[in-house]
Amino acid sequence: MENRDILISGGGIAGATLAYWLRRYGFRPTVVERAPAPRTGGHSIDIRGTARQVIERMGLVAPVKAVRIPSRGMAFVNEAGKPAARMSSESFGPSGGPVAEWALLRTDLARILYDAISDDVEYVFGDAITEVEQDRDGVTVAFEKGEPRRFDLLVGADGVHSAVRRLTFGPEHRYVCDLNSYLALYSMPSHVRLDGWQLMYTVPGGSGRTGRTVAMRPVADPDRAIAGYFFRSPGLRFDRGDIAAQKRLVADRFADVGWHTPRLLEQLEDSTDFFFDRVEQVRIDTWSKGRTVLLGDSAYCASPMSGIGTSLALVGAYVLAGQLARAGGDHLAGAAGYEAGMREFVDRAQEFARTSGDGGLMPDSPGRMWLRNQSVRMVRHLPRRLVARGLEKVADTVTLDDHAGPNTPSTTHK
């Protein structure tokens, strides 16, 4: 097999899953991760459709199920905390609803994946790529701290703001599309017994203000929750490296919001896993250039609010590794097979994210909020096959057996 030495930039879901499958197929992956250790914190994620089969084929169903977040559904509440509209998870099936049956914290899935490969895969923590030079025979990579190294292939699995994409494909603004919305998330002690329900409190837009929503989402520990904030603001500028300034921005935006918001904001300043970003979509015509390939959010982020990003990462990693193995390490054939196998899934996921918009979280008037609540109330009266078919159908786009590498069983491992 040729091109066995592969550097993966990014130790998140996509990068770790790719490393697992590359190692299984006989490649020698190395993972470089900017964080000094496996990342902690992060918001809840959903594993949908074919991505569940990837987890099954990795033999990781048991540890994933052990940390699933209890989910009874989503409730839109008024200022007094009374439900104005709610929808049960049972209405959507395992993969079709706003919260999937397999929902868990990102940090838990990242830990499970890391534990599955850490004994067999080289990890370089606390470093990052600064230069990339490709030629006919390989890729020379320079690092912030370590000495330059030579690899056969480079995979950028380093997120929406990918350094690998910038160094190889060009500036971020060419590929990252602003959807004019923002979200902030952090975990905190919960003073509310959520009992498996995700609670959403919305202040509709009007009088020059945009719609805003504050959320509380349960986690496996009933004494903790994830606080979420969603708002619109075209062209908002912020420093990605200044976490304190981002926290102040969120606090200012929601200072006048009722419900439990004041209590949630009290926890904001001391949060250690705070996440804030613009809601964006990555669109790029090709995911490979020479000996560099993009994977996951760096290539095709649908939207952090789409509910499909983790599934894209898991399936994309499986398809890329399988196609490289099928091609005997030929990077051109492997990359072509990867793009052919994933493009329909990506197109459908991104179209779903665009057409579903913000899911009614930022209505620009009281009338639109009323319409949202009426739509939510209707869900329980509709057949499951009709309610779930949108996202569930998208999540099942790829057939794994079409992309399995040599000697990969199609049967699942429980």
Topology readout:
Blueprint: E1 5-9, H1 13-24, E2 28-33, E3 44-47, H2 50-57, H3 61-66, E4 73-77, E5 83-88, H4 93-96, E6 102-105, H5 106-117, E7 122-125, E8 129-134, E9 139-143, E10 149-151, E11 153-156, H6 163-168, E12 176-189, E13 197-203, E14 212-218, E15 224-232, H7 243-253, H8 261-266, E16 275-282, E17 288-289, E18 292-294, H9 297-300, H10 309-326, H11 331-356, H12 366-378, H13 384-395
Parallel strand pairs: 1-2, 1-11, 2-7, 4-13, 11-18
Antiparallel strand pairs: 3-6, 4-5, 8-9, 9-10, 12-15, 12-16, 13-14, 14-15, 17-18
Helix pairs in contact: 1-5, 1-10, 2-10, 10-11, 11-13
Question: Would you write up a description of this structure?
Answer:
By secondary structure, the chain is of the alpha/beta class. It has a domain at 5-71 and 109-175 and 282-359: FAD/NAD(P)-binding domain, CATH 3.50.50. 33% of the residues lie in helices and 25% in strands. It has helices at 13-24, 50-57, 61-66, 93-96, 106-117, 163-168, 243-253, 261-266, 297-300, 309-326, 331-356, 366-378, 384-395; strands at residues 5-9, 28-33, 44-47, 73-77, 83-88, 102-105, 122-125, 129-134, 139-143, 149-151, 153-156, 176-189, 197-203, 212-218, 224-232, 275-282, 288-289, 292-294. The strands form four sheets. Strands 5-4-13-14-15-12-16 form a seven-stranded mixed sheet, with helices on both faces. Helix 1 (13-24) links the parallel strand 1 and strand 2. The longest helix is centred in the C-terminal third of the chain and has 26 residues, at 331-356. The two termini are 31 Å apart. 47% of the residues are buried. One of its GO terms (molecular function) is FAD binding. Residues 5-326 form the FAD-binding domain. InterPro entries: FAD-bd, FAD/NAD-bd_sf, FAD_aromatic-hydroxylase. It comes from Streptomyces zhaozhouensis.
